[in-house]
Predict the structure.
Amino acid sequence: MANGRYTGHQPSTKPTLANIGLHLRTETNAEIDQRKLRWRYRIRISIFIFGVAVTLLVLSAAYDAIRTLANLEQVERVRDQWQRPGEIIQKLNLKEGSVVVDLGSGVGYFTLKLSRVVGKSGKVLPVDIKKFPLRVLRIRAFLERERNVDVILGEPDDPHLPPAGVDAVLVLNTYHELNHPAKILDQLSRSLKPSGHLVIVDRSPSSAHGMGPESEDHAVASVEVETTLRRQGFEVIQRDDHFTEQPGDGLWWIIVARNLP
Ligand SMILES: C[S@@+](CC[C@H](N)C(=O)[O-])C[C@H]1O[C@@H](n2cnc3c(N)ncnc32)[C@H](O)[C@@H]1O
């Protein structure tokens, strides 16, 4: 080619269809290779970014979990100072190897204490109707190597307890939340062994006075509970309306009942 014109003496540069096709194919292959390279690079970058994001998420979740557990322990240490857990445990009449239910366990403030009391040969059955607190409780029991904790997801009117194999039941700060206490007491009576202890601890309504209607909802009168217990066939062996006082939140009562044979 000279001055842009085809001379006819240079066959290798003659723009035949074959030459043009070869040239196009070579370009296309190079482009494909480049595109592949670009994609590989993009995929590697994406995997790296995804990995970093997942790692950050996991680390942040782990940090939150550790902080939550640490806060929980701090709150429970403060609660230990007024809730009188030692006396509550004593009234449950437990020994090594006992099976004890923590009805309305929440995240396990008492479950973990009971687990240590009944030991490896015993069992604690924490029951709650909410999945999240039970999940937290499972993690806590695992971290504290309490292998005798068998979590139960109950229903509002059915704690899903095994029949007649339970030595004692604790209902701490939960009775006031029961929609149909008589139904629950009936199930507890079927699960408790004859003479097994049922200990109920809750906030007194008078202590919630002046703290708004919501606080009233988180309380129940001991006299009302005692009446229901007797009606359901329990023997009430102790009722203390001044069992303990939560600083700034008033009185808590305790009732100890026995399952009649
Ligand atoms: C105020 S919390 C007390 C938790 C724990 N006992 C404590 O003292 O830290 C009450 C718990 O009872 C649970 N609960 C309410 N009704 C229940 C029922 N019918 N059966 C089992 N658990 C119930 C709630 O989900 C909640 O976790």
